[in-house]
Amino acid sequence: PKTVFVGVYSEDKPETQITEVNSSKPEFIETEVVPMSQNELESGKIKAGYKVNLTVKPGFPIGQMREQVIIHTDHPLRPEIRLTVVGSVSGPVSVVPDRLQMVTVKSSVGATGEVALLVRGGQEAHFEVAEKPAPLEVQVEPAPGEAAGRYRLKVTVPKGTAPGLINGLVVLKADLPNVGELKVPVSFLVGAN
Q1: Residue 191: partners with Cβ closer than 8 Å, 6 or more residues away
Q2: Is this prediction's pTM over 0.90?
Q3: pLDDT tens per residue, range 104-132
Q4: 3-state SS class at 28
Q5: Peptide bond before residue 97 is cis, with ω within 30 degrees of 0
Q6: Rounded Cα distance, 181 and 171, in Å
Q7: Rounded to whole angstroms, how far apart are CA atoms 133 and 165?
Q8: Are 21 and 36 within 8 A, CB to CB?
Q9: What is the 3-state secondary structure (H, E, C) of 52-106?
Q10: What would the mean pLDDT of 82-92 be, rounded to a whole number?
Q11: Do the Cβ atoms of 130 and 143 come closer than 8 Å?
């Protein structure tokens, strides 16, 4: 688990209360509201306030994280505070680079890009594609000529794909302990030629 916090206070209404905290993934992002300590209040030169602890729990999908936390208050001018929680979740599998991006894909030709999947300790693994943006084709295979535990995630934009932006996540499931899902952001800009 990893815990960070955000301070919430009001200079014009020190008696402001936090009434509720919601997260976009409550099963993985735990929230806890605690009053600020006397030292924290003094060092911040504020009368009253709260710390909202945000804990990312084990099992969060590996890869880039971008989630929302909404803090509800009884302050008449600020009843809602929206936070974006951004980070990278690591685990027994590393993705190198952590995303796949191509900006010069020709519709008449198509293209294939790849990233490496590195399993710690050289373990063998089986990966299954759980989600992918249409019309991409996705496959995972062992990296040829490399040590055990090294795989290639190949993402193909098929020839004849309509011009435009293909943006989303490739989500993989693995048969390794402590790996629920592995998310790889992908972005392809397909041109008309």
Answers
A1: 104, 105, 106, 107, 163
A2: no
A3: 899 999 999 999 999 988 888 999 999 99
A4: coil
A5: yes
A6: 7
A7: 11
A8: no
A9: EEEEECCCCCEEEEEEEEEEEECCCCCCEEEEEEEEEECCCEEEECCCEEEEEEE
A10: 88
A11: no
Report residue 14 as tokens. Answer: 């020190």
Q: What pLDDT, in 10s, does the model give residues 39-49?
A: 999 998 999 99
Q: Are 191 and 107 in contact (CB under 8 A)?
A: yes
How many CA atoms lie within 13 Å of 82's alpha carbon, on the beta-carbon side?
A: 4
pLDDT at 87: 87
Burial class of residue 98, CB neighbours in 10 A (0-12, 13-18, 19+): middle
Q: Are residues 72 and 20 in contact, defined by beta-carbon separation less than 8 angstroms?
A: yes
| Residue 143 · residue 134 · CB < 8 Å | no
In this structure, which amino acid lies at residue 6?
A: V
Give 58's contacts (C-beta < 8 A, 6+ positions apart): 1, 178
What are 161's two structure tokens? 């794909």
